[in-house]
Amino acid sequence: MPFYLVNTGLLKKVSTVQSVQMRLYSMHKREFVMVFIGFYVCIGLAVFIGLAGPPITVTTSFKGSELLKKLNMSASDISSGPFTIMSPRMSTYNQQLWVMAVFKIDNSEDEILDKRFHVSVGIKAYDSEHKEVTILRQDHHHNRTKHLQCNGQFCEQITILHLGYLDYAHYKIKVQFFGFENQRYNIKDVTFYFKSYNPGFTQIEIWFRFIFLLTTFIISIWFAHTLRKFPMYDWSIEQKWMSIMLPLLLLYNDPIFPLTFLMNSWIPSMLDALFQATFLCCLLLFWICIYHGLRQTERKLITFYLPKLLIVGPLWITGVVLATWQKANELHDPTFSYKVDTHNFYNFKLVFFVFIGLYVLYLGCLIVRAYTELRSMPFFDMRLKFLTLLMIIVITISIIITVMRFGIGVLEDNFVSDLSTTYSSSAQFMSFYGLLNFYMYTMAYVYSPSKKTVFDTSITKDNPAFSMINDSDEDVIYGSDEESRQPLNRSHNDDDSD
C-alpha cells in the first residue's frame, strides 16, 4: 500500500525507498565539532606550508635604455627600438614564459593617455648545444596592435608574448614599436619583464599534487570498500554522488601532471585545464542535485538531471573554451592575445556570466524550498545543515582567495591572459588546492556508511515521508524505533485501516 505525504495542500505519492545509513545519522554534536575543527586545521596547515614556500613566479627586468647602449644606439630610439633581449636560462620547471613591457612617459600634468600602437616581435631560441632555432620571424604577418594606457608618468603593463611551454634553454626576443612618432608626450624609458614559474614552486606543486592524488586514491578505495556490502540502489543520493566526485577529484589532482615536464607538448597542460573545469562544474552540479534530490525520490534523467545539465553544461563548455582557446592560438603565434579576437571573447564571457547568474538563482530557490519543506524533519535537517554549512565555508574561502589573487579585476578583461601570473605567494595555491581536496575528504567521511547500519529494514531516511518527526537528531539511531516506519502525516483512519 503506497504512503502519501501532504505538503502545501498537495498530495504527493512517495515510494518506499531504502537507503544506507550514513555516519552523519549517528554523529553527536561533539563529533560534528571535531570534524569541522579537523577541516579547519587541514586548511590552516596548507596555508602555513604555502606561506613558508617560495614565490610562485620569478621576474627578471631589463631597462630599454641599457639595451640600446649595448647596441650603440641613441636614446632617441627609446620609442621604437629595436630592443634585443636574451632571456635567463630556462628549464621545463619554469613551465611558461611571459614577456611584459612597462612604459614611462614624460607627463608632468598627470593626464590620462590612451594610445594605440603596434608591436613587432621576433623570437629565436637556443638549445643546450647552442643551436639557433627560429620560433617566430619578426616580419610575421601577426604584428599586434596594443593599447598604451597611462595615468601620469607610469603606464599599465602590456603583455608582449606568452610561451605556453618551454623547449629551449635560452630565448632571444627582438621587439620593435611603431606609432609613437607623433605624440604629445615623449617616452622616457621602457622596462621589459621576463616572468616565469619559480622552479622551487614547481617542485612543491609536483609533490603536493602527488600527495593529494595518493590520498584521494586511498580515500576513494576506502569509500567504495565501505559501500561494497550494499546494493547501489540502496545508496543515498549523497553516497551516489560521492562515488562520482572522488574519481573526478583524482582527475582534478591530475595524475598525468608530471608529463608536463617530460614531454615537449601542450597536451598535458591542456588536459589539466580540462580536468579542473570538469571537476568544478561537477561540483556545481552536485550542489543543485543534492538540494533538489533530498525533496524528490524520483530522479529521472529527463525530468531531474537534464534541466540541471542545461544550466551547468554551458558553464563547462565556456570554461574549457576559455582555458584552451588562448593556449591553442599561442601555439601558432606566441603574441596572440584574447584582445585580438575581442568579439568572440566577449560572447563567451557573456554566456559564462549569464549562466552563472542562472545557477545562483536556481541554487538559491532549491535551498529555500529544501529548508521550507525538510527543516523540521530529523535526519533531513541534519543533512541540510551539514551540506549548507560546509558549502558556505568552501564558497566563502574561495571568494576570499579569488579576491586576494585577482583583486577587483577578476571581472575585468585581463582575467584570462594574466590568469597564471598574479599569484603573490604559494599560500594562495595551497589554500585553494587543499580546500577542495579536504572538502571532498570531509564529505566522504561523513557520508560513509555507519557501523550501526541495519541491513534488513525496508523504509529508511532517504525519503522525507518516513523521517522520524517525534525524536531528536542525536538520540534516535537509524532503524531503532518503529516510528521510523510511520508515514509523515497519518490520518486518523489509518489506525483502523489494518
From TrEMBL:
Transmembrane residue ranges: 32-53, 206-224, 244-267, 273-294, 306-325, 345-372, 384-408, 428-447
Pfam families linked: TMEM181_GOLD, WLS-like_TM
Source domain of life: Eukaryota
GO cellular component terms listed in the entry, alphabetical order: membrane
Keywords: Membrane, Transmembrane, Transmembrane helix
Membrane topology: Multi-pass membrane protein
Stretches assigned to the TMEM181 GOLD domain: 81-197
Subcellular location field: Membrane
Main location class: membrane
Positions of the Wntless-like transmembrane domain: 198-451
Protein name from the UniProt record: Transmembrane protein 181
Upper lineage: Eukaryota, Metazoa, Ecdysozoa, Arthropoda, Hexapoda
